[in-house]
Amino acid sequence: DLDHLSEESCRDLIDSFLSAKKQRIPAIVRRLKDDPDFDYEIIAGVRRWWTVKWLRAHHHPEYEYLVTIQSVTDEEAFRVSDVENRSRKDISDWERAKEYTIALAEFYEGSQSQMADHLNLSKSWLSRLLDVARLPEVLVAAFSDTHDITVRVARDIKPLAGDAKTLAKMRDEAERIEEERTKNGLKISGPEVAKRLVKATVQPAAKGAAETELTGKGGKVILRYTKARGGGLTLKVPPKADATPAELLKAIEGVLAQR
């Protein structure tokens, strides 16, 4: 995603190039066939390309983009690119998950086990990453930036999206979040969005019935009772109720008479 390449995200490379006065490590490209617009495709080194472009536009025309041309298959190109992309902070988990989903179908016959072996990844981590790309679009829209959709965020909301009822609740909350962001210009962080989506699926705890207190002659509470559904009663005698057994029985009889 070239949109996230900037002076800030490439600052480390800019400083490295200026310090060395050159591009130390060539990028890897391959020739393109039957493409009317481009002769080469960058396999590894997009940030280096952007950095050279930025330097040349900022008073350093002496910098050249150094490359090595290699003949690789699409699957090999994906693996080479993936190795470099893992260290790139400008690529989000969501973007990487989308790329992995495409590669899973194109190169590995839909087998996560095969893909994990080829990329030297743990099967559990690969599964969690692919879950990011499986989030419904209605929930993705709740996030202002796909960089906020991390593996950890997906871990919290993906299991809930599998149920139609909870998904509907999260969709409604996602629409409210998107409306708040659009109308009010609110900036809501990724973790906060995830928290609100999860919270929307939780039924609020039912409030207990109001407790009624009865006082004795001395003005102290001697009995508390709560009316339950179906006509039941819950009676509580405080530990230090200042009342005789007879007074308590009379209070209880009075409560029962009101049923």
What do these coordinates show?
With 259 residues, this protein is mainly alpha-helical. Among the domains are: 1-91, Conserved hypothetical protein from pyrococcus furiosus pfu- 392566-001, ParB domain; 212-257, no CATH class. Helices cover 49% and strands 11% of the residues. The protein is built from 11 helices and 6 strands. The chain has a 3-stranded mixed β-sheet with strand order 2-1-3. A 3-stranded antiparallel β-sheet has the order 4-5-6, covered by helices on one side. Helix 3 (74-85) runs antiparallel to helix 4, helix 4 crosses helix 6 (123-133) and helix 6 (123-133) crosses helix 8 (151-161). 17% of the residues are buried. The model has no long low-confidence stretch (mean pLDDT 87).
Short description:
The chain has 259 residues and is mainly alpha-helical.
What tags apply to this protein structure?
259 residues, mainly alpha, Conserved hypothetical protein from pyrococcus furiosus pfu- 392566-001, ParB domain, three-stranded mixed beta sheet, three-stranded antiparallel beta sheet, elongated
- The amount of helix comes to 40-55%
What string, H for helix and E for strand, traces the elements in order? HEEHEHHHHHHHHEEEH
Write down the CATH topology of the domain at 1-91: Conserved hypothetical protein from pyrococcus furiosus pfu- 392566-001, ParB domain
The end-to-end span amounts to: 70 Å
